[in-house]
Write a structure and sequence with these properties.
heterodimer; A: alpha/beta; B: alpha+beta; four-stranded mixed β-sheet; about 20% strand
Chain lengths: ~375, ~375
């Protein structure tokens, strides 16, 4: 789910070398280097900002807490990282990445930060550089990059050439995602218990956030329903108690990896919708295999949910990839011809909003194994 | 929605409409990338009162008719309830909806201006360009100029944000102790200020025996002798307010106390200089003058400090960075944070800052208790 982006991410950020040692990144870079060879790129520029930085984090471990960062990754030689932080912030930035050469991308002189590094690639004719993540870069920054590169380099989009982050999660990534799911379960438990203790939905969500952050979550996002599960809203600070059931959404990030969950606690008004939503989620999970088409899964989910329709907040989607981004890859829409991959990790969602049958939202995070799906975390409609 | 707030928001729309009429323009497309940067003006918030989740836009025509477009589509209900625009549309395709709405408002793009499109992602800008056929001429200063003076309601919100910041700092004094990790303290402060109504918080909080600068909280375990730097910046109803504080765990060395008074003196000079009619450069020079007089003139530049303060979003970041090259004239009702934060070789980086409002006689701090060198007893 999309949520309000905080102005700065507050949490425990560091390059966790025990969990993600340098060799992990050399392995991650292999596929990119192969793409460089195939396409004649001596280097690739990888951009990420505070909101979307999956590729940058996957390759460098660097996560911008404000503004943006850009890695200059060569086929051979040392990498360089530019971040939109002032020079006094650089010592702290250097603790977030394996790249030793971290430079400031702020101030009037920042465009020159490319020059000495790019000098080694200059030739009589313009060189090609691959780019990743430039779609989310503001045009004003793109223009600055192009000015800096001048006539010496031609940028070529690499996003469609090589999938970064890789759709198939690496073993260390699976470990991270499991940790994130575990923390999510703790937060979700707090959310429900706080609400059962007669707190307002926003109070319960804040209690869950506090627990997650105190356990080293790097980011926490919440949405709650103030109208019986019909819609969701971001934090508004109203702390109004609401009659009826509890419907909410929690997302937590641990060492860069997200896990998220819809939570419904039924007061008896949504029993029918809940039963069908569970059936829909079951129908997705039981059919997940490497190679399974998304449109086929969607059809099974919608069939199991019938006669109810997918909850409007889901936007017609029954899930998406999850990992370094809350939404990795395309949404699982009815028309999607994409397929699942082995060791892919997916956030699945089901729910209905029906005047008679009630409103419910539930979800699961699942790893696709060779012969079955492994449920890493799952919410079930609970009773008050 | 509170009627007074509606009136205030409508005021911004009316001012923008008058601008369009004066300039013989058809309309304005004001966009937001969904990032609520505390150093930026969010044009969609200025014109609608809605803090957007995703990319969004307000379309306003010269007849004063207005439409808010929000993403994701499911946010339409919330946005409709809050927005001061005539109409609100939720969509998952901003570009296509913008085309449709621009048509409804009968905008001729050659006579239309834009605010904030340059902050959207390049791919989205391309889609918008393709949908509209061209991009309107950029007028990125419009929203921040119109909103440069806080209205009474905005000032009240800034004062409330300051109140939250001060309560947050009191919580820090209660909660911080040796053995606690920085991120645990930051988590507590963040959630505490949120409970008091802060919708966001640009919270930097870090500690060291000798700080080089403040940064976002990390894994460090607090210890006796640490100097905790905190920049607490809650946002309340679209108004960020920032206080900068320095706290020592255990009795500080005398030199720390001695050097902190330099910052306090600089703050006093800055407040006096920050009257309506003075320039931002005047304020900067007043602050730097005190620090130079104390023998640290060479340190009045990065990386030993960054700026002497800055404007505060998300309505308007005017008057901009408090630096000696900023010739902008201060006006009654402008709000910014003034902070003579400074690295001093003997003490490390120290912080002292208050949100202020410009008056005829100087800048008035919105905070009740000015920054002191506070001590956490051990």
């Amino acid at each position: 789910m999309q949520t309000v982006q905080p102005c700065v991410t507050i949490g425990s950020y560091i390059w966790a070398q025990d969990c993600l040692p340098y060799d992990e990144f050399t392995l991650r870079l292999e596929e990119l280097r192969a793409a460089m060879d195939r396409n004649g790129w001596p280097a690739v520029l990888v951009y990420g900002d505070v909101r979307e930085h999956a590729a940058l984090a996957f390759l460098t471990s660097f996560i911008p807490r404000v503004r943006w960062g850009m890695a200059l990754l060569p086929r051979t030689g040392d990498a360089r990282l530019l971040c939109a932080m002032s020079t006094r912030d650089l010592p702290a930035m250097r603790t977030l990445t394996w790249i030793a050469d971290v430079r400031s991308g702020m101030g009037p002189e920042w465009e020159k930060a490319f020059d000495p590094w790019l000098e080694r690639f200059t030739d009589n004719q313009a060189q090609k550089l691959g780019t990743i993540g430039f779609d989310v870069m503001a045009p004003v920054l793109q223009a600055a990059v192009r000015r800096s590169l001048g006539e010496r380099f031609v940028l070529q989009r690499a996003d469609d050439v090589v999938a970064i982050p890789a759709r198939r999660k690496r073993p260390r990534e699976l470990t991270m995602i499991r940790a994130s799911c575990k923390l999510l379960e703790t937060a979700a438990k707090t959310f429900v218990e706080s609400w059962r203790g007669s707190h307002a939905p926003e109070t319960a969500a804040l209690d869950a956030e506090r627990v997650a952050r105190s356990l080293a979550a790097q980011d926490v996002r919440t949405l709650v329903s103030l109208d019986g599960g019909r819609t969701l809203v971001p934090y508004q600070g109203r702390f109004e108690k609401c009659e009826g059931l509890l419907v909410g959404y929690l997302a937590v990030k641990v060492l860069g990896y997200w896990a998220d969950m819809f939570v419904t606690v039924d007061d008896g008004s949504a029993t029918a919708a809940a039963r069908h939503a569970e059936a829909a989620l079951d129908a997705i999970i039981v059919n997940m295999r490497p190679g399974t088409r998304i449109d086929a899964l969607h059809a099974k989910a919608v069939g199991a949910l019938a006669p109810y329709k997918l909850h409007p907040v889901l936007g017609g989607s029954i899930g998406h990839g999850i990992g370094l981004s809350l939404h990795e890859g395309a949404e699982f829409q009815a028309s999607s011809d994409a397929t699942l991959v082995e060791d892919g990790v997916y956030a699945l969602q089901a729910g209905a909003a029906d005047a008679k049958a009630g409103n419910v939202l539930i979800s699961a995070i699942v790893r696709v194994a060779a012969t079955a799906a492994e449920v890493l975390v799952r919410s079930r409609p609970r009773t008050r | 929605m509170d009627e007074r707030v509606t009136a205030r928001k409508m005021g911004r729309l009316i001012e923008a409409t008058e601008h369009l009429q004066t300039q013989a323009l058809d309309g304005v497309i004001a966009a937001s990338n969904g990032l609520n940067n505390f150093l930026e003006s969010n044009a969609v918030y200025v014109f609608s009162g809605v803090r957007p989740i995703g990319e969004s836009a307000v379309v306003l025509d010269r007849d004063g008719r207005s439409t808010l477009i929000v993403t994701p589509a499911w946010d339409e209900t919330r946005a409709t309830a809050i927005s001061s625009t005539d109409r609100t549309i939720g969509t998952d395709d901003l570009a296509a909806t913008l085309k449709s709405v621009a048509g409804t408002h009968r905008l001729d793009l050659s006579r239309t201006i834009s605010v904030g499109l340059s902050l959207l992602g390049a791919a989205l800008v391309e889609r918008i360009t393709s949908a509209l056929g061209a991009l309107p001429k950029a007028a990125d200063e419009l929203a921040r100029d119109l909103a440069r003076l806080r209205t009474p309601d905005e000032l009240a919100a800034a004062e409330r944000a300051t109140w939250i910041a001060e309560r947050g700092y009191e919580r820090l004094l209660e909660y911080a102790r040796p053995g606690l990790r920085e991120f645990e303290l930051a988590a507590e402060l963040h959630c505490f200020t949120k409970k008091l109504g802060a919708e966001d918080n640009f919270l930097l909080m870090s500690a060291s025996q000798h700080n080089l600068a403040v940064r976002a909280a990390g894994e460090r375990v607090l210890d006796v002798g640490d100097i905790i730097l905190s920049e607490i910046t809650p946002c309340y109803r679209g108004q960020f307010a920032q206080i900068c504080r320095t706290t020592v765990i255990g009795e500080p060395r005398p030199v720390i106390r001695e050097k902190f008074t330099i910052l306090q003196d600089a703050m006093i000079e800055g407040l006096a200089a920050g009257r309506a009619g003075a320039t931002v450069a005047d304020v900067t020079r007043a602050i730097n003058g005190v620090i130079a007089k104390a023998g640290y003139g060479d340190y009045c530049r990065p990386p030993y400090m960054r700026v002497r303060g800055h404007g505060l979003g998300i309505t308007s970041d005017r008057p901009g960075d408090i630096v000696d090259t900023n010739a902008r004239v201060l006006e009654n009702g402008m709000v910014f944070v003034m902070h003579p934060n400074q690295y001093i070789p003997e003490s490390g980086y120290l912080m002292c800052g208050e949100p202020v409002v410009v008056t005829d006689t100087g800048s008035r701090a919105l905070s009740v208790r000015p920054a002191e060198l506070d001590v956490i007893a051990v």
